Amino acid sequence: MGSFDQTKAYVPQEDTFFDDGREIELLHFIYSHPNIDNIRGSPKNVLAAINEFGRTKKYLMNVGEDKGRIVCDLIADVKPKTMVELGGYVGYSCILYADAVRAAGGKQYFSLERNPEFAAVISSLVDLSGLDSIVKVVVGSSDESLARLYESGVLTHIDLIFLDHYKPAYTTDLKLCEELGLITPGSVLAADNVIKPGNPPYLEYVRSSIKEKRERLNGVDEGGAKEGDSTQGISEKTVKQYANRYAKEKFSNSPGNPNLVYESRLVNSFEPTGVPNVLLILLSFTTLPFSAALVVACYVYGRLFPLPKPLPLPHGERKTILVTGVSMSKGLAITRVLSEHTPHRLIGADISVFSPGRVSCALEKYLVLTLPDGRDAEPYIDSLLQVIKSESVDLWISCSSVVAAVEDGEVVRLAEQERGEHFEAIQFRGDVVERLHEKDQFIDYIKSLDLPVPESYRCTSSDEVIGILTGKRRKGEEKRRFILKPIGVDDRARANMMTMLPFEKCEDTVEYVKSLRVSSKNPFQVQQYISGAEYCTHALVIRGRVVAFTCCPSSELLMHYEAIPPSSHLFQQMLKFTQRVAEDGGESFSGHLSFDFLAEGEGRTSKLYPIECNPHAHTAVVLYLSTPQLASAYLSAFSPAKSAEMEIVTPRTPTPSYYWIGHGIVVLFILPVLYLLLGLNKASEILDCMTDFWEHVISWRDGTFMVHDPVRFFVLHHVYWPVKFVRSLITGTRWSRTNVCTTKAFEQ
Ligand SMILES: C[S@@+](CC[C@H](N)C(=O)[O-])C[C@H]1O[C@@H](n2cnc3c(N)ncnc32)[C@H](O)[C@@H]1O
Known about the structure:
Layout: H1 22-31, H2 36-39, H3 43-56, H4 64-78, E1 82-86, H5 92-103, E2 108-113, H6 116-129, E3 135-139, H7 142-151, E4 160-163, H8 169-180, E5 188-191, H9 194-198, H10 200-207, H11 210-217, H12 236-239, H13 278-304, E6 320-324, H14 329-341, E7 345-350, E8 365-368, H15 378-390, E9 395-398, H16 405-419, E10 424-426, H17 430-437, H18 439-448, E11 456-459, H19 462-469, E12 482-486, H20 491-495, H21 506-515, E13 524-528, E14 533-542, E15 545-553, H22 569-585, E16 591-600, E17 607-614, H23 629-635, H24 640-645, E18 658-659, H25 661-678, H26 683-699, E19 701-702, H27 711-731, E20 737-739, E21 744-746
Parallel strand pairs: 1-2, 1-4, 2-3, 4-5, 6-7, 6-9, 7-8, 9-10, 18-19
Antiparallel strand pairs: 11-13, 12-13, 14-15, 14-16, 16-17, 20-21
Helix pairs in contact: 3-5, 3-6, 4-5, 7-8, 13-27, 14-23, 15-16, 16-17, 17-18, 19-21, 25-26
Family: Belongs to the class I-like SAM-binding methyltransferase superfamily. Cation-dependent O-methyltransferase family.
GO molecular function, one term: metal ion binding
Enzyme class: transferase
């Protein structure tokens, strides 16, 4: 779970927070919006306008962006033909989900809303977003509407149901759907608010075994909730939420189908009102004494058992090596290995004053670089050039983040221009970075090397895209599936565009593609969809030769790195691919090179497709933390003969796996304990998380912690992140997810 982005917060909830005319006000707000022409026909813009109203005018009880995304992911997974929502309010969830259902090839979305005024608002906004062909808004109490839809034959089966209406009716409506056969094995339920404010009868029902349900039906349950009492344990405020308009609530008395069992999973997310990231500051504060004690213990141990120092070099042979990006685990891992195993002078630089790298004893000096000023990267480039000049840097190892890769390439060119001679740098030139990083250029380039690529097309108009998606198949040819990626747009846009195409109906595909407004200014890549496991690699390339290489299964979100053994077929395939690209780069090709691959099929017959290239260091380099030979690989940059002879350095075997405790403690320990205390999750699920966490603590390694260099771990968790959170609270800086290992806080 990420932290809530405060800038997304709606205005606070008042005592009366709905049904006071604000729903109609919302319609006036949207239809008189200066951007109305762009809102028309665009579900995304209609949702943005609803959010704008909630943030600047009045609170709205919508599901919100964070929780909405979870259900959208579920829709993409389940691909429901028919989805039903109970409780539509002003249509936020309806527009968001119906758009996702359409994108996943679905046909129908039923929004059931009891209040006719709200239902009229939904219908109006659904029309405005152009989703009227898939959405049916049904006015009336959910139980009556479900029964009516079933009897008229309009609704025969529900693939995915979203429950977000009157909390006590969750269980009774679910049972009704079971009895009518609308919900069958394979149907998926997504229920909002079961954690907060809580819905114990619903959770109890979906977690009961067949035997328990039968016993309760027959009235033999000992001491449990009385069958039929669906308000038990739900707060009085929630039970009376709609009492102003519907004085007496009525429920279906359906017995349900006790033979159905559900697999259940609780997912925490945020209401649009927000959860302050103060909690994370508190976590850092409460764990501070433990970390401080750990630092002291490590310090004493380090004094008693110091690491052996590399032999000093004769006068004049000591070089200065600069590593940039030392706030990140990858930059620190490289400096750590170099400082332990080379006698050269190591200096580090990064853009943060509070960088955990500045306190690392691996560095002799830390320098702060200037942050790029908006789109102007010059201040950053100038400050880096200044460091290279003033410190007489002999070798620069660039470990900067992806956003600075092109600028870093430019720095190499300018440094050479200034010196009038070759400047040794582990950094590709700007044009190489662009060629490898831009999705379409990369695929074209790889194709030119005769290496396998997923079928990909660059398109600058909707017609081009439609032509490819709806093109005729040869006889016997299987239906191919594609995804559509924006080119040169940020990764957030890409995350929203991973829709499987074409849809069943040609007109749906056409409608969808047209809504993306593909043009020469907004080009897209149509790419063959490949289903399979994803892998990432990290390589050090010097003068066109791969001198160090490792790879592992991709797991950015879990933040786990487990090396694939060099003897495996997959490893060899990925290495061969990387070597081919490196060779093609020639003598001037030095830098960190990493690829993302998808493997189609398994074992020795699997076929690898590269999907992306990152021409910069990958966090997987932490796998080398106990491999001294990595230092020699970097130093081979000083001697062409050595790099030509070097054996490829792979992480020492057995290689420990890496995790980040700051991440693990939140997702695998604190949250599960919280659920346990609140009685919200099954003990077995909590136990699984705890076991994972414990296993990591015992047998994995933290990517930041080091017994002989413990202060940077302390600074990361008790200075860097808290300062970032406090700053974010004060300035309202946009962030919704944090990555402990790259020290980045970014929008999801
Ligand atoms: C929390 S709001 C739904 C928000 C909406 N799902 C969204 O995220 O945009 C709950 C809605 O359920 C409706 N509702 C409550 N009880 C209902 C019932 N028995 N049948 C149908 N709708 C109901 C309320 O009128 C209200 O509009």
